[in-house]
Design a protein that fits this description.
The chain is 25% helix and 23% strand. By secondary structure, it is an alpha/beta fold.
Length: 176
């Protein structure tokens, strides 16, 4: 949903995979990027000031960062699209973000799957899920024998698609 009219505040250090999205998605869509330094990214009030001054419309962050912004006094004065990932989104935090953000999106994807694998637009804090697979991604819930499980049955998440390597090869010194 990012367009050329958007302005994304990038808070993730370059050493994490998620920074790839913060840097390249705005460039691909013609949106603007507002890079913040590490000190600003850890200061809820400073982040709010940047969002306000820059009239930012999108920010992706962990629950911790959203929480420090709320504790610093965030309210509807910065109604951005809040993208939350990196760890589980608690219902109480989702409710608070929904009270301040223009919209809330929960994203899931282990580093091994190239940033995100699933996305869910959260409108009800009582119904938080990791959502559905993004394009070119498949999600499977399997048992310990790698057999598919039915809806609502707990199991392990397996991810397939363009963001996952087909196989891995280990190269040791002197061997191929």
């Amino acid at each position: 949903g990012m367009t050329a009219e958007d302005k994304l505040v990038a808070v993730t250090t370059i050493s994490f995979d998620i920074a790839g999205l913060e840097l390249f998605l705005p460039l691909l869509t013609g949106a603007e990027i507002v890079l913040v330094d590490a000190a600003t990214a850890k200061d809820g009030r400073a982040l709010l000031d940047v969002i306000s001054a820059e009239k930012a419309t999108v920010m992706q962050a962990t629950p911790y960062t959203w929480r420090i912004m709320l504790e610093a006094g965030w309210d509807k004065t910065a109604p951005i699209k809040a993208i939350c990932g990196g760890e589980a989104l608690p219902a109480e935090l989702a409710e608070r973000i929904l009270g301040a953000a223009g919209s809330l999106w929960n994203v899931y994807g282990p580093t091994e799957t190239t940033i995100w694998s699933t996305v869910k637009h959260i409108t009800d804090p009582g119904k938080i899920t990791i959502g559905r697979p993004i394009d070119n991604t498949s999600i499977y819930i399997l048992d310990k024998f790698l057999k598919p499980l039915g809806p609502g049955i707990p199991g392990e998440i397996y991810i397939g698609g363009e963001g996952v390597a087909d196989h891995a090869r280990i190269i040791r010194r002197g061997e191929d």
